[in-house]
Design brief:
This protein is an alpha/beta fold and about 280 residues long. It contains ten helices and eleven strands. It is about 45% helix and about 25% strand.
Length: about 280
């Protein structure tokens, strides 16, 4: 294995093409420098310089080594800073899960500002429901995730940052007639499966009863599309009203359940997670 010091000595000679001046630049005497270069040539099995009594020139092998050695020493010089950046959460890779509803809230702004603040962090985004989040955490394929649940019912075993509580609103098929609140609550219900968000599912069913379910669907956009087809009504976070779909209207309801969005992560998460959490906390505040 070639050490860095002989490469530094070789580069000094390669740049100055003079052993004496290279030795002065390295603050050493010439004989040890000459010996170091000869040892490097022996290690590589080829001459690096053509020497005469009047000149020193690089051989083709020496010219190739010069370019490679410059890159190698530059990388070695940058390495401590790169490692410190990873340890400080300023570089590395953040694998982030998110439930679709947060995309209609603060997520796009948080991601944009985080990219600007930490350009050396590579973001890998994964849209997923709560059940998928928990599986991804269990197998170690995500570092943090945005999930939804009823207030105070975040999944256990995680560190957590709440990023907002909002009411649910009722998504209704548009009609020439405006139904009463009682008629809306009596309408067939479109809802996500219970394992997607158990606490939220239970809160919704408390307003309707399990016999009201007409259809289950996982993605919020699919649920809204089903509402537009007049298959039923659906409870969705108020922020989802930004998803406009022909044939759908939204209605705020008295006593509506609330939904909380939380950023969750493991206590042993990499430093980049703490950096992202602090960023969201400051940006959200």
């Amino acid at each position: 294995m070639i050490e860095l010091r002989p490469l530094q000595q070789f580069l000094a000679v390669a740049e100055l093409l003079h052993f004496g001046r290279a030795a002065q630049a390295l603050h050493m005497s010439q004989p040890p420098l000459t010996q170091a270069v000869r040892k490097l040539e022996a290690q590589l099995g080829t001459p690096l310089f053509e020497r005469t009594s009047r000149s020193v020139r690089l051989t083709p092998a020496g010219a190739a080594l010069q370019a490679s050695a410059q890159r190698l020493l530059a990388d070695a010089s940058a390495l401590p800073g790169e490692i410190r950046a990873v340890a400080d959460g300023l570089a590395g890779r953040l694998r982030l899960g998110f439930v679709s509803t947060v995309g209609f809230g603060g997520l796009p702004q948080w991601l944009r500002s985080f990219r600007e603040a930490c350009p050396q962090v590579a973001l890998a985004l994964r849209e997923a429901t709560l059940d998928v989040h928990l599986h991804e955490f269990a197998i170690g394929s995500i570092d943090a995730g945005f999930v939804i649940h009823t207030p105070g019912q975040a999944p256990s075993g995680f560190e957590r940052l709440s990023v907002g509580v909002e009411p649910l609103v009722l998504a209704l098929p548009s009609s020439n007639q405006e139904p009463s609140d009682a008629q809306c609550l009596a309408a067939p219900l479109i809802v996500f499966p219970r394992d997607v968000a158990p606490s939220l599912y239970d809160a919704i069913l408390a307003h309707h009863g399990s016999d009201a379910i007409a259809q289950e669907a996982i993605q919020m956009q699919t649920i809204i599309n089903l509402v537009s087809a007049a298959i039923g009504v659906a409870w969705v976070p108020a922020s989802l009203q930004g998803l406009q779909r022909a044939g759908v209207v939204y209605r705020a309801m008295a006593g509506a359940p609330e939904v909380e969005t939380s950023l969750i992560w493991r206590t042993d998460a990499p430093p980049v997670v703490a950096r992202f959490v602090d960023h969201v906390r400051r940006y959200h505040a």
